[in-house]
Here is the input.
Amino acid sequence: MARIVLADDGIAFDGRSAENGSAGGAETAFVRLAEGLAARGHDVAAFTRGGGTFGHRGVAWADLAAGPPEAADLYVANRGHRLLDLVPRARRTLFWLHNDARYVLKYRYLSRLWRRRPTLVFVSRTHMAGAPRWVPDGGRVTIPLGLDDIFRGESEREPPPPSALYAANPLRGLGELVRAWTRDIAPAVPGARLDVRSGTGLYRGGAKARTQAKMDAVLAAARAAEGSALSLGPFVARAELPALLRAARVFLYPGDPTETFCLSVAEAQATGVPCVVRARGALPERVVDGVTGFVAPDDAAFAAAAIRLLADDALWRAQHRACLARQRARGWADMAADFEALLP
Here is the structure.
């Protein structure tokens, strides 16, 4: 049994956030890694900003302000540069990156990376390619994220009505999706509906003012477009998401050039929902173009692919079956095993 410490100093969350709908992809991955390592028999402590002191699913959770221990067999510093100053006597330190890797090209990161030389952990091939080789490190590895079991056990089903779903951060392409939906997609498919589940709920500790203003503007535009073909609702708890995905015929997600993995698309694919995405960041690694959805090179191709999947039952069945066959193999336990393999 190894002593493993994880730390995060981003938005406020804790071990219960992955269930109650207040965690994004990076936060969910952090929680699931801690739980997965605990399930493998290790002594795991997780420290997050604003968290309480409690035990949950085998993990000892605590507020980062209380300070993690000085020593551990494995220390996983999640995203933040200040975390690289902690747990100085760890036998091995991992720096787990989630966002666009170019964010480490700042002195506050580079100076600590040079001093600490942690192993850099990326979540996709695209992600790793974004970090220049001259960035200081003690090695590099790609460990893809996993999936909750609730997304991995779906059976084959009949084509749903022409309903589309967007369930993600509003800044991941919601604005352009609303424009494409109202202008091009909905008018071409009788009875089509877009269910938007988005909001600012991921930022329980408060988003930065500029980010908050951008999210508010996008959500206001979506609210203005509400009607018979589009509805806007809040994020849902994770346990409720599979039911939304089962009711959806297609998951529409333009995404952002800084996408490093995209858990939302991975979950939709695993549930058997074809996805239409733009060719941005790591999204081409999540969707098998023409097989489990479409990776669109431009706005026109995005709208055309969405229309096809909403209207063509034979195409939908083929891609639905391909999703179930190809896109749900990897769970969080697999990810935890990959991290365990890095123990000294």
Notes: The first strand starts at residue 3 and ends at 8. The chain is about 35% helix and 20% strand. The chain has two domains: 3-146+330-340, 149-326.
